[in-house]
Task: structure prediction
Amino acid sequence: MKTKDLKVQSDDQMATQLGEMKREQFNLRFQAATGQLEKPARVREVRRTIARIKTLQTQRSTAAAQETK
Result:
């Protein structure tokens, strides 16, 4: 998922998306451990999407903290 697609989502939607991505990451790790992984590149995509979501959440919380000061 691209960053510009994530930026238009609300905080709740991003939190839901993060949960789904973490669940998918777990399943992919499980498949890799059992040798059933069909798309190894998907592991990298999911990991990077999780990082993008967390980065945007941090940026939003920092911006909100700056506004309250």
